[in-house]
Model the fold of this input.
Amino acid sequence: KGSEVLERKKKQKQKAKTKLFSRRLFCISTKANMDSKQATEYSKVVKIIKENGGEISSTVHRKVFALITTLGAVQRCTQRVRKACKLDIPVVDVSFLTESVQKETFLDLNNFYLDLTNVKRELERREKAKDDHSDAAGKEETETTSDVSITSKHVR
Done:
């Protein structure tokens, strides 16, 4: 009877483990340079999420619960990190997954947020550059339009 109870508890624990991230969609950004260490880490992260009932998205979009990433990916300002920042999707360290699994509970994301100050600066810089480019293109277009107007007045 003792072994049956232990077996039942083991199965319950296993079942609880598989539900830890259920109904959660994660995106992962760990492979900014894609060296072998980062590739291994990416596969480990995918395995942890799937073994615990979570799902993986290859892209960042509004339905993504959180972007699981590394400090290196944030420092390199990867496309997924920038997109998550734009969409206000939590960007959390990989340790959120490992510690949640280890403690067998869904931990508070607030304890795992990565600092996105540099990412936000980079987004602002890119937005400003885009605006500056648009302004320059707009001025060029205006000058062209006024030249055409003058020409058409001469034709009449």
